[in-house]
Amino acid sequence: MSPTRVLVLNSGSSSVKYQLLDMRDSSRLAAGLVERIGEQASRLKHTPLARGGESREWSGPIADHDAALKAVAEELAQDGLGLDSPELAAIGHRVVHGGKRFTEPTVVDDAVLAEIERLIPVAPLHNPANLTGIRTARSLRPDLPQVAVFDTAFHTTMPEAAARYAIDVETADAHRVRRYGFHGTSHAYVSRATAKLLGRAPEAVNVIVLHLGNGASASAVRGGRCVDTSMGLTPLEGLVMGTRSGDADPAVIFHLARVGGMSIDEIDTLLNKKSGLIGLCGDNDMREIRRRIDEGDERARLAFDIYIHRLKKYIGAYYAVLGRVDAIAFTAGVGENAAPVREAAVAGLETLGLAVDGELNAVRSDEPRLISPGDARVKVAVVPTDEELEIATQTYALVENTN
Questions:
Q1: Three-state secondary structure call for residue 167
Q2: β-bridge mates for residue 164, sequence order
Q3: Where in the sequence numbering do the catalytic residues fall?
Q4: Fewest CB atoms within 10 A around its CB: which of 168, 198, 248, 338?
Q5: What is the pLDDT of residues 10-37, one digit of tens each?
Q6: DSSP H helical segments within 29-168, as ranges?
Q7: Furthest C-alpha separation in the chain
Q8: Residue 223: pLDDT band by 50, 70, 90 thresholds?
Q9: Where are the alpha helices (DSSP H) in 141-263?
Q10: What is the pLDDT of residue 396?
């Protein structure tokens, strides 16, 4: 029998998250995290899921990603799941930015690596780390297919009217300035899972997906294809996020430089790391913000109101883009767990067919579920995202088709 296991790697600048899945039944065999790579107090946590084993955790210096992946391989080997296993079919890598070229999962070769590297200027925080993970994995298993699954790929179906910024075309093309979108693996998975929840084929369903975590994005999905999304050239555009501003007048940058005397790097840090919820009220944890609201904290209340106001604007805009909406799906950390956010986001939109049932909305569950009244014209759903399963599924399908 051909191998059926896929190792999914998500390599960050100082971390590696991983899961090992068996694609015969999409079961998880192991999962873990290496963090603070390059520090003396690096940390690895590994959980052997298949056998219900206890998590193992240790701290110590892990010099680089090469050492991190070797440590991961050793942990997997302890459970009989090592990288040398003949049952391992491929390694799937999350790559944040694939530009216009990469519209599908892609088997990595030297030319693919070169193109991912060429895209570093539009993803300086993510693509270098993704490249490091791929190169290290290739060195450990040069005989094994390495597959890149791109965050941007799902959004490449956007029409030019949605993908283009209204700036000089020659300048935009020369510098690859356009709207790419992110969180694509999540939007792809959740839109299909929502259709399944409705008992319909993805091709027959129009869905607004709201991926609400520390990073947040919305997408309009018509018949399984993305036609608009809130993030743009970078993950800064769109919704109010944990530390990112989302939409802002571009002239804010000029004003802060000319009047505030701030450098480009300082403004970049402000908009990406010191804005959003944390900039508005000092917290980017929605649970803490809600606790502060309950205690009468006005800054927390204003931050929440701005967050919801922006969210409603995108729901309305994407309703207009799609023309017909069958469902709205909330996902990711805030979307799956913050009932007050879901309730507030659709409050007042009853004329659009949107409403939530208070009792259903209050239920906590790891399963996809509807939280709208039974007779609602537009269904409101909570659909836990599973980006690792999506990456593994795309990786395995590509390798099987290639074989």
A1: coil
A2: none
A3: 151
A4: 168
A5: 887 778 899 999 999 999 999 999 988 8
A6: 65-78, 110-118, 127-140, 160-163
A7: 67
A8: very high
A9: 160-163, 169-174, 184-197, 251-258
A10: 95
Contact status, residue 228 vs residue 157, Cβ threshold 8 Å: no
What is d(CA 68, CA 43) in angstroms, rounded to the nearest whole number?
10
pLDDT tens profile 313-349: 999 999 999 999 999 999 999 999 999 999 999 999 9
37 within 8 A of 62, measured Cβ to Cβ: yes
Q: How far apart are CA 209 and CA 220, in angstroms?
A: 7
How far apart, in whole angstroms, are the C-alpha atoms of residue 25 and residue 166? 46
| Residues facing residue 7 across a β-bridge | 20, 91
DSSP classification of residue 200 = S
Identify each DSSP E strand in 36-100 by its residue range.
42-47, 56-60, 88-95
d(CA 208, CA 379): 11
Six-digit token string for 134: 């791929």
What is the arithmetic mean of pLDDT over 260-280? 96
Of the CA atoms within 13 Å of residue 185, those in its CB half-sphere come to 24
For 289, phi then psi, to 5°, come to -65, -45
Type of residue found at 41: A
Kindly report the pTM of this predicted structure. Answer: 0.91
Is residue 210 within 8 A of residue 331, CB to CB? The reply is yes
Answer yes or no: is pLDDT of 290 > 80. yes
Which residue type, as a one-letter code, is found at position 222? R
Average pLDDT over residues 87-97: 94
Q: How many CB atoms are located within 10 Å of the residue 99 CB? A: 20
